[in-house]
Each structure stands twice: as structure tokens, then as C-alpha cells.
Design a protein that fits this description.
The complex is a heterodimer of chains A (573) and B (78). Chain A is an alpha/beta fold and 573 residues long. Chain A contains 24 helices and nine strands. Chain B has 78 residues and is of the alpha+beta class. The chains are: A alpha/beta (573), B alpha+beta (78).
Chain lengths: 573, 78
């Protein structure tokens, strides 16, 4: 038995899903967080039923994005539908409900965000609504779990609605009748959050607020990330882990193939976690000591911005700019996600309307947006005063990437046939961050990072060390030497880092750290690494989402522009 | 008196009298609850010239791109 959760975007389907099944999924305060589908199980009477969290959709007729197409297809597989409605937006939500009632499947309605509706002075006569719709209706507050038991019990009473098909006009008239007879509004004053929400999209206050938010994000993430590295991770590695690794190193005799693989090189007779490049040293220190703190800080910050509801406001502000790149404001969401990890960012492009937009957005994400792991390493290497670097050098890298983002977007908008669709987007209400959700999203994302990163980095370090030992890289370095040395001004071994970047870019940066580069070479190398070929995870998801041809097109752009950017930096720095 | 949606001033309520768009645009708007006859109010006019407008309609706020908003004719009320 398949139970589907169907409703508009951003009405809390994912939260209800988690409550019913115990399976955690990311939920946020903007439409379009669920773009694929998630399955879980729950008890239904004596048996177990499959529960499916369907991407949000406004209507069953003519899907307007990939996410909606998925939703429509899944509807065919459902045996029972839980239609989740936002009680604060009854009128708008009922349109989909009426469409579902014509669909000849048993339906129950969850009137979610019941508490919000009460705060907003909206009261709804549930009994009457139930009578008018002819299916069970239960008020729920998904985040606290209130009403979900009643909802679950109502599933047994789900009836097959017998509504005759209506035209669009008739539906709106019907909705008018229903809303008028079940809903009453009480006057109340605007809350602070409503006032603040309006300020964020207003002419005078919107841009200053955006600048404050973006600057504080930039410094806040760095402050938290560096704080964790300096006060927690480095001491832990230095004082707890190092003595143990030293014992192993001594036991292995300080040399030989096994020592080379496990410990790596000793720097001035000592273990250097950033440079030794063994499995137990750099292989663990890069993902845990250097990258994890930054990823944690980034997702904490993003999670708060998401939950408050700021991102759709940013989309409104940036709509004009995004139009110049063949996109509209909404596309800022996948682009921001790309600064965390390119894989979910590319999946998130499913909220965009057409293929042209998705191709542009996917290309921009994978060429110009460094993921959090790569950024952490850029800060650690290029921003390292011991190497002659600093915030100025880091800003050069970010500046070049940002400029490439604008330039490539502008170019694609001109050369790809078609026009960019207009922005049309619901803006969710502002609310105070709900910490359990923020914390759950953070845990899911950080755990996802650790699960993915640690094995790949360890395997990568192992392979690289073996290939080094076998001197395989020497041949590769010889072939590509002209590009590396003449065009980019890097030592010929830098090609190894570029090749390793296909596995993971943070590890590639870790390899650069062992190469004793000047600060200029570090700036060039990290820019090229950021823009060049995507890492394997991004590569696979690109093929899945935009096809082989789309991927080939994107990759061509990456190669051309990374060489261009690297070559120009090499000349002018 | 009717005006383009883009000319409506902040805070003023109005009713949609005409949407001059093709079938595709009409369905896109309708699924967001924006259709002929419905009441709305302007929340914010574009920050940057030709940017989107934000309107309050049936209990929530919707951002509408400039090109689309120009094709919506409204009659200010009250």
C-alpha cells in the first residue's frame, strides 16, 4: 500500500513525513526543498504502508518544472493520498485539493500550520470543511506532532470522493464558496516579523539588508569554522592523535612502502598533519580537521537563513541580475546551495522551469561555485600568512570566480537560444528559526558530508601514494608539463593535484600543500582547480540531470575558462 | 480607472480586471492563485528598475517578474 503526501510547496509535507515514518529529510522555509522523492514506512492498522514524500506542486495540470513532473508521475502509484494544506493559505491551497478530489483516489486532508493560522487570527470550521469536501480533515501542527495521531486514524476513513470534473472557472467559484462559509478572519496588528519581511524586499531597505546578511555570512562562517579548527580540531590532532601516530611511525621504522602509505613523509623528522600525506595523517586531518569545521559552519548558517525564510527575499532582490544570465531570481537558491556542495545544488535546479535554464544553472554551479570543502582548503592554504598569503589573496580567488560566474552566465544567456522565463514565486512568511529543524538539517548534511568525504579521501590518499611509489605520475607530469609550466606558471607536478581533483577537490588542495608553491602559484592553482573538471560526484549527477550532451557542453566551458583564468592570473599577478 | 499592476502604489488594494497573456502564462499565474477578479495589494515595488513586484494575494505573498506584472491590469479600490 502506497500513501502519498501531496500538497503545495512549503506547506510542511517533509516534516509530516518525518513525523509519520521517523525517516529524516531536509525541510526548509522555502518552496522546492524536496525535488526528488523520499520513501519511508509506517504502521497502518495491521500492516506496514509505504509513505512517499512527493515534491510540492501547485497544480496537477501542466507541470511547470521537473520537480512537478515527478510529482505528477508519482500520483499514479498512490493508493491513498494525504493532501497537506497550509491553514494560513486556505484559499490558495484548496485549488489543488479540488483537483485531487477529481482524481478517483481516496483522500484525507491535513490542515497543517494550524497554530500559525490561530496566531494570524484565522479560524476555520473543520467540521464544515469536512462536510463540504466530503473527506476527513484533521488540523495538524507538523513540527510539534500535534494532530498527527488523529490524521493517522483518519486514514482508515478515507473515502473515495465522487466529485464531477470542473473547469478552472468553476473551481475558483467553488473555492470562493467554501472559504466564505468555513473561514473567518479577526483583525490584528502586523507582527515585527511581517514588518521586517516587507523591509527586506522594499526599495530603500532591501539592498542594505542584503549586504549586511551576505557580509555577516562571509565573516560568520569563517569565524565559526576557524574557531572549531583552532580550538578543537588542531589541539585534538596534535595532543591526542599525534603521539599514537608517532608510535606507529616508529614501529614501522620511519620508512618503507607501508610507512609511506600510512604516515607519509616526515617533515623535519616530525609528523606534519597538513603535509605528510599519509592515510593516518593528512588523510584524516583534511576531512576532519580542516574541512569539517567549515562545512559545519556553512550549513549552520545556511540552515538559519533557510528556516527564517530569507532566501526567497534574496531571490526577489537579485532577479534583475539573474535575468542577465538567462535565469530568474529563484535560481539564486541552487547557486547558494552550490557553495555548500555542488551535488544537491545541481539537483535543486529541478525547481527551474525549462531545460535552457537548468543547463545554464548547472554549468554556473559546477564551474564557478567552490564547494564548502574546497573553500575551507582555499582559506587554509591561500589565506595562510606563513606562505605569504592573507585575506587579500583569498579575495583574488573569490573575485575571479565571481567574475567568471557573471561572465559565463552572460555569455550563455546570449549564445543559447530561447528566453528566460519571468519570476513567479510564493514568498513564505518570516519566522523565528525553529531550532529542532535547523539542528536536524545540519546533522543530516554534515553526516552526509562525512559519509561521502572520508572514504573517498582515504581511498584517494592510498591510490595517490601507491602511484607516487610506482612513479606513474612522472609520465603524466611530463606530457602536460607545457600547459602547467608555460601557461599557468606552476611546477609540472601540479598536474597530479588537478588529476586528483577529479576524486575530491579538498584532497587536491591538500596535495598542493605538500608541493611548496609560492603564494602566486597557490592563487593560480586553486582558481584552476575550482573551475576545472568537476569532482566525480558532481560529474555523475550532471550526466543524470542534464544528459551526456549537456555535461559535455558544461565540461568544455569549464576547461576553456579555467585555463583562461589561470593563464591571465599567471600573467598579471 | 484601470492601471498596470506595476503602477500600483505600495499598500493599495486592487482587483485584477485583465491578464493579457497566453494560455501558458494564465495557468502559471492561476496555480499561484492569481486570476481575473481576485483582490490583491501591493507589498513592494521594484527595488531596481524593471525588477519584480511583490503582492499580497489570498493570504500569502507572491513575487511577479516585471514583464509578467506589466501584462496584468488592475482596478485600484478603496
Amino acid at each position: 500500500m502506497n500513501i502519498l503526501l501531496v500538497g503545495h510547496p512549503n506547506v510542511g509535507k517533509s516534516v509530516i513525513f518525518t513525523q509519520l515514518t521517523g525517516v529524516n529529510v531536509i525541510a526548509s522555509n522555502y518552496p522546492g526543498t524536496t525535488v526528488g522523492f523520499t520513501e519511508g514506512e509506517m504502521r497502518f492498522g495491521e500492516q506496514t504502508a509505504k509513505v512517499i514524500d512527493v515534491p510540492g506542486t501547485y497544480s496537477l495540470s501542466t507541470p511547470s518544472s521537473k520537480a512537478e513532473e515527478i510529482a505528477l508521475k508519482m500520483l499514479e502509484e498512490g493508493d491513498l493520498i494525504i493532501n497537506v494544506i497550509d491553514a494560513t493559505r486556505l484559499e490558495r491551497n484548496l485549488h489543488l485539493t479540488l483537483e485531487l478530489l477529481e482524481h478517483r483516489k481516496p483522500v484525507v486532508v491535513a490542515l497543517n500550520m494550524w497554530d500559525d493560522a490561530q496566531h494570524k487570527g484565522i479560524s476555520i470550521d473543520v467540521q464544515k470543511l469536512q462536510g463540504l469536501l466530503g473527506v476527513p480533515v484533521s488540523p495538524t501542527v507538523a513540527i510539534t506532532g500535534e494532530g498527527l495521531k488523529v490524521l493517522q486514524e483518519s486514514l482508515a476513513n478515507a473515502t473515495l470522493p465522487l466529485n464531477p470534473p470542473m473547469t478552472e472557472e468553476q473551481r475558483w467559484v467553488e473555492i470562493g464558496h467554501i472559504v466564505e462559509s468555513v473561514q473567518s478572519l479577526h483583525h490584528r496588528h502586523h507582527t515585527f516579523w511581517e514588518w521586517f519581511g516587507d523591509c527586506c524586499v522594499r526599495r530603500s531597505s532591501g539592498i542594505p539588508i542584503a549586504i549586511i546578511v551576505l557580509l555577516s555570512s562571509f565573516y560568520g562562517i569563517r569565524f565559526i569554522g576557524e574557531g572549531i579548527t583552532t580550538w578543537l580540531m588542531e589541539p585534538a590532532f596534535e595532543h591526542l592523535w599525534k603521539p599514537l601516530v608517532k608510535l606507529i611511525s616508529a614501529a614501522l621504522g620511519g620508512d618503507g612502502l607501508l610507512h609511506h602509505i600510512l604516515i607519509g613523509k616526515l617533515i623535519a623528522g616530525d609528523i606534519d598533519f597538513a603535509q605528510s600525506f599519509g592515510l593516518l595523517t593528512t588523510g584524516l586531518f583534511v576531512p576532519l580537521g580542516m574541512v569539517f569545521p567549515f562545512v559545519f559552519a556553512f550549513y549552520l548558517w545556511l540552515g538559519i537563513l533557510e528556516d527564517i525564510g530569507y532566501l526567497p527575499r534574496l531571490a526577489v532582490l537579485l532577479d534583475r541580475l539573474m535575468h542577465k544570465m538567462g535565469l530568474h531570481g529563484w535560481a539564486i537558491i541552487p547557486n547558494l546551495l552550490g557553495l555548500g556542495c555542488n551535488v544537491p545544488a545541481i539537483l535543486a535546479t529541478r525547481i527551474l522551469e525549462d531545460r535552457r535554464e537548468r543547463l545554464i544553472a548547472c554549468t554556473l554551479v559546477s564551474v564557478a561555485l567552490p564547494c564548502a570543502a574546497l573553500q575551507a582548503m582555499i582559506w587554509a592554504l591561500v589565506g595562510n600568512p606563513a606562505k605569504g598569503g592573507g585575506i587579500g589573496h583569498v579575495l583574488i580567488v573569490y573575485g575571479v570566480l565571481f567574475f567568471s560566474w557573471l561572465l559565463i552566465g552572460g555569455l550563455l544567456a546570449r549564445i543559447l537560444p530561447g528566453t528566460s522565463p519571468e519570476l513567479l514565486m510564493e514568498i513564505p512568511p518570516y519566522r523565528r528559526p525553529y531550532w529542532p529543524t535547523v539542528w536536524k538539517n545540519l546533522r543530516l548534511r554534515v553526516a552526509g558530508f562525512l559519509r561521502e568525504a572520508i572514504p573517498v579521501v582515504l581511498i584517494g590518499v592510498l591510490v595517490v601514494n601507491i602511484l607516487y611509489w610506482l612513479k606513474v605520475f612522472d609520465a603524466l607530469a611530463l606530457i602536460t608539463a607545457p600547459i602547467m609550466t608555460k601557461l599557468l606558471g606552476l611546477p609540472k607536478e601540479a598536474i597530479i593535484a588537478v588529476a586528483v581533483g577529479f576524486l575530491r577537490k579538498d584532497m587536491a588542495m591538500g596535495l598542493l600543500a605538500t608541493m611548496d608553491l609560492t603564494i602566486k602559484q597557490l592563487v593560480v592553482a586553486s582558481t584552476v582547480l575550482a573551475m576545472f573538471f568537476p569532482c566525480i560526484a558532481t560529474f555523475i549527477v550532471l550526466i543524470k540531470e542534464i544528459g551526456w550532451r549537456g555535461m559535455a557542453f558544461s565540461v568544455m566551458i569549464m576547461i576553456v575558462f579555467s585555463m583562461l583564468a589561470g593563464g591571465i592570473l599567471n600573467v598579471i599577478l | 480607472m484601470t492601471i498596470q499592476l506595476t503602477q500600483l502604489i505600495v499598500g493599495q488594494p486592487a482587483r485584477i480586471v485583465e491578464i493579457a497573456g497566453g494560455h501558458h502564462m494564465l495557468t502559471r499565474l492561476a496555480r499561484m492563485g492569481i486570476h481575473k477578479g481576485i483582490k490583491l495589494a501591493m507589498v513592494s515595488t521594484p527595488i531596481i528598475r524593471r525588477g519584480p513586484v511583490v503582492v499580497a494575494v489570498s493570504g500569502s505573498q507572491v513575487a511577479i517578474g516585471h514583464g509578467m506584472a506589466m501584462k496584468i491590469t488592475v482596478e485600484p479600490s478603496g
